[in-house]
Specification:
The chain is of the alpha/beta class. Helices cover about 30% and strands about 25% of the residues. The protein folds into two domains: about 150 residues, Medium-chain alcohol dehydrogenases, catalytic domain (Quinone Oxidoreductase, Chain A, domain 1); about 140 residues, NAD(P)-binding Rossmann-like Domain (Rossmann fold, 3-Layer(aba) Sandwich), CATH 3.40.50. Bound molecules: NADP nicotinamide-adenine-dinucleotide phosphate.
Amino acid sequence: MKALMCHAYGPIDNLKVEDVPSPQPGPDQVLITVKAAALNFPDALVVQGLYQHKPTFPFSPGGEVAGVIKALGANVTGFSVGDRVLASIGTGGFAEECLASTLRLMPLADGMDFELGAAFTLTYGTSLHALQRCAQLKAGETLLVLGAAGGVGLAAIEIGKALGARVIAAASTDEKLALCRSVGADETVNYTTEDLRKRVDALTGDKGADVTYDPVGGKYAEAGLRATAWRGRFLVVGFAAGEIPKIPLNLALLKERFIIGVHWGEAVRRDRSEFTTDMKLLHEWFAAGRIKPVISERLDLAQAVDAIKRIANRQVMGKVVVLPRG
Ligand SMILES: NC(=O)c1ccc[n+]([C@@H]2O[C@H](COP(=O)([O-])OP(=O)(O)OC[C@H]3O[C@@H](n4cnc5c(N)ncnc54)[C@H](OP(=O)(O)O)[C@@H]3O)[C@@H](O)[C@H]2O)c1
């Protein structure tokens, strides 16, 4: 089978499409014929050795897929060969076949095609966990989303609206902000041309956002924390800007703000029931038309290298989907 392979940490350009043997499922795994795999920012980090998860070499990037089960491990129950499924797998998805643990494997919902299924789990899973469980976002509250036109950002906008919040989307270009409005953002801030804190103050009657969702880090984190209300919740989701910010803790003290770390993968590893419950709600929202991944590009395996470079350089909007068989 063909797979995009990483043999050592290094430049993204080192990734190559190769012919490799089909992987063999372990006792609690299934083998999936990949119909679609979605790109996420961690794919750019993991091949450069910059991600917390360090897979053994050689490996393929690609953290989430949708496809058809080709073979079952000895202990697997509840799934059959031929089932249409979606899976969150960490790595291995940019390939014609991949392995998935049954821990984060789900049947593909009615009305969800392979491309939407591939682009569903990680971004919505992370953002629902962050907003509902970590921040306890309530209807009527104001949610500020940074990096809002990215994968987890767009999901946070839609989930914020589904939970009844007023959503302020912040991003770096007007084109990205137009996309945010198209999925439901009530207000927008261009944080390359406007002062984030002043604009959020103006939009909230000087109160600030009740919840701030930050997958960007860098210089935007402190501005986002300053834009957070008295006893507001600031969610540390990621550091796409590359720099892990060092925040003056007086900003937490002055307004009794809560700074909350979000680690979805570890949270669902510790409690599988959370994954099942959250995916059920997300599928209900999908069926009701309240959430739907924005797929901006469809690429083959060789084109995925360029897309991984572009997501690392802030040049991707919404979700890129890789179709391993073209
Ligand atoms: N904590 C968790 O459980 C969890 C789960 C999934 C993902 N994450 C993390 O969340 C972050 C976002 O992931 P994603 O897949 O949504 O990424 P994405 O689609 O690339 O979105 C990230 C956004 O960050 C902004 N950004 C600002 N400076 C950037 C820079 N120098 N380079 C790249 N992007 C920059 C960009 O928006 P603007 O151009 O508008 O600023 C971009 O749209 C990543 O750090 C990822 O590791 C965390």
